[in-house]
Design brief:
There is one protein chain. The chain is mainly alpha-helical. It has one domain: Arc Repressor Mutant, subunit A. Helix content is about 60%, strand content about 10%. It contains four helices and two strands. Strands 1-2 form a two-stranded antiparallel sheet. Helix 1 packs across helix 2 and helix 2 crosses helix 3. It is globular, with a radius of gyration of 13 Å.
């Protein structure tokens, strides 16, 4: 398994989320971490980002898209 060279803090910053929310996603997905600087395995980073994106899409409604 390769490493994504992304930390929890970097993912939080990239997606404008609180660190605690990314911690919560890690716990939901069963991803171990020690600190916000923990470097994530590629598959773990992809799982977190996928979850973030799916949650973002769930909150977008036709009215908010301008449809």
């Amino acid at each position: 398994m390769g490493f994504a060279d992304l930390s929890i803090a970097e993912i939080a910053a990239e997606y404008d989320l609180p660190i605690e929310e990314v911690y919560h996603l890690c716990e939901q997905l069963g991803i171990g971490y020690k600190t916000q600087e923990t470097r994530l395995a590629l598959e773990d980073a992809k799982a977190i980002i996928s979850k973030i994106l799916s949650q973002t899409q769930d909150t977008v409604t036709p009215a908010s898209r301008g449809d």
